[in-house]
Amino acid sequence: MKKTAIYPGTFDPITYGHIDVIKKGLKIVNTLVVAISDVSNKDYLFNEEERIEIIKKALFKDLKFSKKNIKIISFKSLTTDLCKKYNANIILRGLRAVSDFEYEFQLAGMNRKLNNKIETIFLMSDVENQIISSKFVKEIISLGGDIKKFTTKSTIKSLKQKYD
Questions:
Q1: How do beta strands 90-95 and 4-9 pair?
Q2: Would you say 96 and 134 are in contact if contact means Cβ atoms under 8 Å apart?
Q3: 93-102 b/e with 16+ CB inside 10 Å = b?
């Protein structure tokens, strides 16, 4: 049976923590939809199109992932509605630390109430990537720091263009 999962997030920008979750997710599903949230209540560094392009370059150019089982899309709806659209019954969520768990637990519960056929699976990135957040990556590069350990070459190039 084919399994499709939605991995929603802002990915502003994508980091090695996100990429770890994608790698692990691909081990348990046939198709992974990387879904870029573009709700208007957030202040993004990169717009929707830029984030799609950054993720494509990071995954397919820098890391040579296969395009056959990864879709990259943006959305402005409920994640559960997106699951219906892509016939997915799994939502993947990444956990970095215990502090993430309470919010993610509540979110999973709400999604379950909205559609009880959808399961949320929590995946942790590898230990060396658990401390990485998009927020910190943006702050480090804005202050002239080195972010090679946190994201891919093409993502770094896109960040440098924003901050130069």
A1: parallel
A2: no
A3: bbbbeeebee
Q: What is the pTM of this model?
A: 0.94
Beginning with the edge strand found earlier in the chain, give each strand of the sheet holding 119-124 in spatial order.
70-75, 31-37, 4-9, 90-95, 119-124
Residue pair 95/101 in contact by the 8 Å Cβ criterion? yes
For the chain, what is the domain count?
Answer: 1
Catalytic residues: 18, 42, 96, 134
What CATH number does residue 105 fall under?
3.40.50.620
| Mean pLDDT confidence for 97-119 | 91
13 cis-preceded (ω within 30 degrees of 0): yes
Both tokens of 67, joined, read 């395009």
Which one-letter DSSP state was computed for residue 42?
S
Q: How far apart are CA 14 and CA 146, in angstroms?
A: 16
User: What domain range includes position 65?
Assistant: 4-163
pLDDT at res. 25 = 97
Distance CA 59, CA 43 (A): 24
**Mean pLDDT to the nearest integer, 138-159:** 97
Helix (H, G, I), strand (E, B) or coil at 71: strand
